[in-house]
Amino acid sequence: MLFTNHTIGNTVLRNRIVMPPMTRSRAGADEVATDEMAAYYAQRASAGLIITEGTQISRQGQGYAWTPGIYSSAQVEGWKKVTSAVHREGGKIFAQLWHVGRVSHVSLQPGGAAPVAPSAILAEGVKVVIDATGEGPTGGGIRKEQHSMPRELTIPEIEAIISDYAAAAKNAIAAGFDGVELHGANGYLIEQFIDSQTNHRTDKYGGSLENRLRFLKEVATAVAAAIGKERVGVRQAPLTTLMGAQDDHPEETYIAAAKLLNEVGVAYIHIAEADWDDAPVMSPAFKAAYREAFKGTLIYSGKYNKARAEEALEKGWADLVGFGRPFIANPDLPYRLEHDLPLNIPDPSTFFGGTGKGYTDYARYQQPAGVLA
User: Fold this and answer.
1) pLDDT band at 137 (very low <50, low <70, confident <90, very high)
2) What's the rounded mean pLDDT across residues 258-286?
3) What terms describe the molecular function in GO for this protein (predicted)?
4) Amino acid 367: pLDDT
5) Which of 58, 104, 197, 252 is the most buried (most CB within 10 A)?
6) Looking at the predicted structure, is the pLDDT value of residue 371 above 50?
7) 37, 40, 41, 44: CA torsion to nearest 10
8) How far apart are CA 243 and CA 184, in angstroms?
9) Which is nearest to 191 in space by CA: 166, 216, 210, 158?
10) 3-state class (DSSP) for residue 76
């Protein structure tokens, strides 16, 4: 079933294998996508769908060094090289639109300002990556710092960020993307509004579950209006505790969110299952509830292999399945999975920042020796 076609909105995919978003921190000056990024994504264009690394919708939305943006004309031009390269290889590609909220550092913010959040709450021990030397992604100058204390957003500022999402979505379409995914997972801004432990507001964006879901609803609605709901997906991580994310009643909260997104009419929900060794397990009943609540496409990612992916498809939990780290080291992953071939092992030391080593030099199956495998 992994190798049958599927349609998201009006986008026809050639298989059910997704390359999910993975931060690689290799953007160039002014957070512009590079030629090497174009090569990286084009190498993996045999995926049914590629979803890019998180791509900030504004300078304020950036939380890590060397991540790409999609708010300037230069950034749009940079992404055009990526989408053109993927499309030449017959692939489909969505841009993941990202605002990190509180998970940032003053050195990355405009004018050295504090990061913004629904509420002024620090996530102790949550670190971000900053450029320690100013030499860019190839300079090797990574330093991890506790994220800076955030300040609470005003309602006019929230409205401005919603407009930033819509503008970024229009930029993505102008750059040639087939659609966009809203990053509503992993403890970043949209999830900070949703989760009860990160949103202590008392106005219309906080308190009740309906109010905590308001920002998600308004962003999704604005982006759908800007580019068409058939081009919009949303990523969620209902059980993750990444970046200090925590909700007191995740099943109630995220099924309500799924029903809301079904009403908005977005094309898909992309569910990131917690993928560390002792992570909480997303139960079959929870997955069945998602299927009942949301009638569009459901994507699951998180430590999937071929057997687990086939099970998810056969049991009706998923329509598409994402394979993250395996795609880093195996640009021809769909071919390897289809033919039960051995996989290259990724080198974690090259995941974030660096050169083409561990990025564009992984071998396809039976390529000549001498490349990283």
Assistant:
1) confident
2) 91
3) FMN binding; oxidoreductase activity, acting on the CH-CH group of donors, NAD or NADP as acceptor
4) 52
5) 104
6) no
7) 180
8) 13
9) 216
10) helix
Is 311 within 8 Å of 2 (Cβ atoms)? no
**Alpha-carbon 237 to chain mean position:** 11
User: Which of 126, 129, 124 has the alpha carbon at shortest distance from 144?
Assistant: 129
DSSP result, 85-135: HHHHTT--EEEEEE--TTS--GGGSGGGPPPEESS----TT-EEEEESSSS
Beta strands in the chain (DSSP E): 6-8, 11-13, 17-19, 49-56, 93-98, 116-117, 127-131, 142-146, 151-152, 179-183, 232-236, 268-272, 297-301, 320-322
Q: What is the pLDDT of residues 176-209, one digit of tens each?
A: 999 999 999 999 999 999 999 999 999 999 999 9
Catalytic residue ranges: 188
Q: Residue 142: pLDDT above 90?
A: no
Q: To 5 degrees, how large is the angle CA 108–CA 40–CA 21?
A: 55
Enter the tokens of residue 293: 């609540």
The number of helix segments (H) and strand segments (E) in the chain equals 11, 14
Q: Which residue type occupies 227? A: I
Burial class (CB in 10 A: 0-12, 13-18, 19+), 208: exposed
Please, what is the Cα angle at 188 between 186 and 191, to 5 degrees? 80
Token couple for 190: 């949209």
Residues 236-255: pLDDT tens digits?
Answer: 999 988 898 899 999 999 99
187, 244 contact by CB (below 8 A): yes
Task: List alpha helices for 183-303, DSSP H.
Answer: 189-194, 209-212, 214-227, 250-264, 284-293
Do 116 and 72 meet the contact criterion of CB atoms below 8 Å apart?
A: no
Calculate what percentage of the chain has a pLDDT beyond 90.
89
Give, as one character, the DSSP assignment of residue 277. T
